[in-house]
Specification:
elongated, 185 residues, 12 strands
């Protein structure tokens, strides 16, 4: 048996500036606790900062591929981020993106624009090829990534544990489409 590699599955709404991100995070946490997917109280089962996160709960055993979930691991919790962040795979990320309007490759210009996006100077990007403008999340990416002030980081939860139905319910509750970003740590 091989050792489990460290990973994160991150659910990101496809909007740069989520209105009342903290309020919506609390609502989603209540829903996840009610489904018994995560604990109601914080504990030191996270990876970021002070390591405080919401530990995996027994209801997660009902998810697809539950045998791969991090029960018993010290880092198994959900961390909620309510500040502007860029969520991309950390290894082998290609930084390739396309315009949904003209279908041209515009990755270099888009990723260069993150210097303005990150400090919230803008939420949008303008295609340098055709002038199409949209929220940065509206552009096409070869690898799943997200840009938002709201993110749900599930430490050591494999992506295959998130069924299409669960992701659709996340999107319904958030009111925006979501993207599942996987990160190997």
């Amino acid at each position: 048996m091989t050792a489990m590699s460290e990973q994160q599955s991150i659910i990101v709404p496809q909007i740069s500036t989520f209105p009342d991100a903290e309020g919506k995070a609390r609502q989603v946490l209540r829903w996840l606790h009610k489904r018994q997917l995560v604990a109601a109280e914080l504990s030191t089962c996270g990876r970021l900062g002070n390591r405080m996160a919401y530990a995996i709960a027994e209801g997660a055993r009902q998810l697809p591929h539950a045998e791969r979930l991090p029960f018993g691991l010290p880092c198994n919790g959900l961390e909620v981020v309510t500040k502007r962040c860029i969520y991309t795979p950390t290894r082998a990320f290609l930084e390739e993106a396309g315009c949904p309007q003209c279908r041209q490759e515009i990755g270099e210009a888009l990723f260069d624009s993150l210097e303005e996006w990150m400090p919230r100077q803008t939420d949008t990007f303008v295609c340098p090829e055709c002038g199409f403008e949209d929220d940065i999340n509206g552009f096409l990416f070869l690898q799943p990534c997200g840009f938002s002030n709201l993110g749900f980081i599930f430490n050591n939860w494999p992506a295959e544990c998130f069924s299409p139905a669960l992701l659709a319910e996340f999107a319904r509750r958030l009111g925006y489409p979501v993207r599942l970003v996987t990160v190997d740590c």
